[in-house]
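Lab notebook: predicted structure, single chain.

Context: the supervisor wants predicted structures on file for every construct in the current expression panel, including those that have not yet been purified. This is the next one on the list. No modifications to the sequence; it matches the entry in the shared construct table.
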Amino acid sequence: MEYIWLVIIGLIANVLGTLAGGGGLISLPAMLVMGIPVHSAIGANKVSNTVSSLSSFIVIYKYKEVTVKEAMIMMPLCLGGGIAGGLVASVLTESTMTIIAVVLLSFALLTSFLGSSDFNGNRPLVVNKKNGVTLFGIGLYDGVFGPGSGTLMMYVLSHLGISYIRAVGLARIAIFSSCFGASITYIATGKIMWAVTIALLIGSVSGAQIGVHLARKLKKEYVKPLLRIVTVALLIQIIVSNI
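Prediction complete. Output recorded below exactly as produced.
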């Protein structure tokens, strides 16, 4: 029965995660409540998100919404961040990462109200030194902790003038890269509970496919409110779980 619940958790989390990020606010707390050790829960999330994110990116790529060139720009930065994040996970305390998560998400929420970008643009992805560091930083955060990284990535892509469905595709390849990098370190350190991970993976891939098809139908005026709701929910969940 535990494994059935993990499939359901993975499905629901990845529908939300694909649309606006924030799937970790469902999957990680739920796994901890089930008594799964924190490092194994995070590791299961990383492995399942690696596969589910790639599967949703492939669907968007088939519709020619994003290009391989853009994906190749994102991948090294986020992959490097994910590997670095997996390595520093043993150095930074959970309380430190919680503070970082709250600061980053609060800043993203604030800029969503102050900024004019709302996924109206259709600019090509151009990475410079400034936003390159930002993408690497989100990958690092995703490798260490995770919840909120997809949401932060969507805010960044919105700021860069990327349209919504393209932002979903690019965010998915970014999460694939950072999670792949982190997965290597979690597997190498023996933190993976494979039965748990595979059950979560089955649900995650299904949820990602549902999410990417919903994303193609979601009206752009609903995207910012959805991102804000997810961000507030993430902040509440992170703060409450650490009181």
